[in-house]
Amino acid sequence: MKNVFVETANVKAYHSALSALEERGAEEACIVVVDGAPGLGKTTTMKQHIAQTGSIYLRAKKEWQPKWMLNELLDELGVEKPRGIEQKYAKVVSELALRQQLAIQNRKIFTLVIDEFDHCSSRPAILETCRDISDMLELPTIFVGMGKVNDNLKRFPQVASRVSQKVRFDVMDKEDVRRLIDKRCEIRVADDLVTFVAKMSKGYNREVLEAIASIERFGFRIDVGEDGITMADMAGEKLMNDRASGTAIIVPEVL
Length: 255
Description:
CATH class of the largest domain: Alpha Beta
Order of helices and strands: HEHEHHEHEHHEHHHHEE
Strand content: 5-15%
GO molecular function: ATP binding; ATP hydrolysis activity
Shape: elongated
Keywords: ATP-binding, Nucleotide-binding
Oligomer: single chain
Largest sheet: 5 strands, parallel
CATH superfamily of the largest domain: P-loop containing nucleotide triphosphate hydrolases
Organism: Martelella lutilitoris
Distance between the termini: 25 Å
Number of helices: 11
Protein name: ATP-binding protein
């Protein structure tokens, strides 16, 4: 499978949100919430963003407390961890400020991305720590979750008021499924098989990538026609597992 990042409609929506963030009115409104079910490409999009901008990525933990979060942040920044929590906080702020200034000089956006934020989106201490850092530096902060973040933040208006952009990752349409297959699959895929992949995957990136891997494993063993590998070619072969039941989805000869 080709190691290529594919810009789907979800990715475009995320980039639009970042552009809008840079043009915000209230400087303290620095938070972006990215929500959506698992398997829609949120983490992949964030990692691409990190690679392009040099931003900082954290994965929230269920039992996070401010000291634990600050320690992980200092690890990601690659600096020595002071002993006291006040000193840890001050070190985080100073290091983030340095990275932010360097990004500004290079005309890049610098952000703090916290993935799996559902784990701590109802924890006042974590939310206040994130808000303090974001406010102090006017630092764009991205909360990435699986559907609960926006609802949880409603209980904390002092944080919710800082959210300037909300991006919801939705399932892909057939056009995006075709784009993902064309860009990442090593073998040409016929329209009927693309349609079947779109239908069976229900538009989830993770399932489409699983289907691509199956198509490649089969396709490398046969002579593929000019139109690409078809449903008839793969009839009887496993394409992917069903998300809900976990059972194998077998390719029929026709739709």
